[in-house]
Design a protein that fits this description.
This protein is an all-alpha fold and 61 residues long. It contains 2 helices and no strands. The termini are far apart.
């Protein structure tokens, strides 16, 4: 009977679940930030590439 009481009073599993939820939330925030930053970076590189291609043709002519 004491084993069942100790098992029901044990809260270490709840702490592990709380930490897992925090890690999952941080992971989602990081993924969203990378996704947003990646889109902006892609646009920036596209603009830089088109600018550089225009510069290289005017220099070589």
């Amino acid at each position: 009977m004491t084993f069942i009481k100790r098992f029901l009073n044990n809260e270490s599993g709840a702490t592990a679940i709380e930490y897992a939820l925090m890690v999952a939330g941080i992971g989602l925030a990081v993924a969203a930030g990378i996704n947003a930053f990646g889109s902006n970076t892609d646009t920036w590189y596209s603009n830089a590439a088109s600018t550089n291609s225009g510069l290289s043709t005017s220099v070589s002519e």
